[in-house]
Amino acid sequence: MRIGLIGAGALGALHAVNLEAVPDCRLVAVSSEQISPAALEASRSTGADTMGGNEALLDPDRVDAVIIATPTDTHAHYALRAIDAGLSVFVEKPLARTPEEARLVRDRAAARGVKLAVGHVVRYFPEYAAARDLVQEGRLGTVSVARLARLNTAPAGVGEWYGDVVRSGGVLLDMAIHDVDWCLWTFGPAARVYAVSAGGPDGPVVALTIRHTAGTISYIDASWREESFTTRLEVAGTQGLYRADGSGSAGFTSARGDAQTYLPPASASDDPYVMELRAAIDWFRGGPPPRATVADACDAVEVIEAAQRSIDTGRAIALEGALA
């Protein structure tokens, strides 16, 4: 399968390198307003063409599928163009800057019969996948509460498009959406959302609470004011407590307090970013769908938008169609 890459910054470069681990596919073209050194090296190693204009890549005679890793506010634009060209599409999270754009992309892909995958990579991290399995299998009993955190320094370029909340959606849409997506995947739809924020534009902090229709409460903290990247996950049920800190260690603690290990030995092929890309491309070629659907991606953007409205108004926001 011939793959084109639109957007060659940090994530675009990562996808360019990871494509080498996906069988029977080849990066044939890279287009970006600015091509990072890593993406340029990846394009050279695969013999891919490099182009300055993104629109030139949307040609079904040149590529079979495209990866979109451009700034958030351009995701919908390029996704719609690729869909109209009949190309399969992998777009980095979030699917779009606004719920309206996300629904437009979703509906256009359905109308044109185009396969569109979204990069909600946390679903492929073993700690998070295992936690969901424990919940779905009932091994934690009835889950009442989950606490998650995703903390980092301000991203490179925060003074550019990342720092423009209108373009990037800020820490909510860039960071918290990872945990929002996992919570919706694990506990089901959101009924109500409440959020507060603190800190200035160079170090924002948000705290987000989701009441799911099934009754579980999810608490999510996200920030761009830490010294290093940190994640935490804790799920409490009537039969056990699950904790995972970071990406290198995790465990399951039963109600009696005895710890159990569950993670298999890691290998290069288990890299979550490779796994999500492989799953999307396998689907494009007729395999099973990836873990995150376009509908899931729309739901995550909807919840983030509700969280922003809650911050703006100081009130909890009930989601349309949800059980209050």
Q: What would you report as the Rg, rounded to the nearest angstrom?
A: 20 Å
User: What is the helix/strand order?
Assistant: EHEHEEHEHEHEHHEEEEEEEHHE
Tell me the overall shape: globular
**SSE class:** alpha/beta
> Roughly what percent helix?
25-40%
Q: How far apart are the first and last residues' alpha carbons, in Å?
A: 46 Å
Question: Uncertain segments of ≥5 residues (pLDDT<50)?
Answer: 248-259
The biggest beta sheet reads: 9 strands, mixed
Query: How would you state the average pLDDT, rounded?
Result: 88
Give the total of beta strands: 15
Characterize the structure shown.
With 324 residues, this protein is of the alpha/beta class. The protein is 34% helix and 28% strand. The protein has helices at residues 10-18, 37-46, 75-84, 99-112, 126-136, 165-168, 170-187, 272-284, 294-313, and strands spanning 2-8, 26-35, 49-51, 65-68, 88-92, 116-119, 143-151, 190-198, 205-212, 217-223, 230-237, 240-245, 249-254, 259-260, 317-318. Strands 14-13-12-11-7-10-9-8-15 form a nine-stranded mixed sheet. It has a six-stranded parallel sheet with strand order 3-2-1-4-5-6, sandwiched between helices. Strand 4, helix 3 and strand 5 form a beta-alpha-beta unit. Helix 1 (10-18) packs parallel to helix 2 (37-46), helix 4 packs antiparallel against helix 9 (294-313) and helix 7 (170-187) crosses helix 9 (294-313).
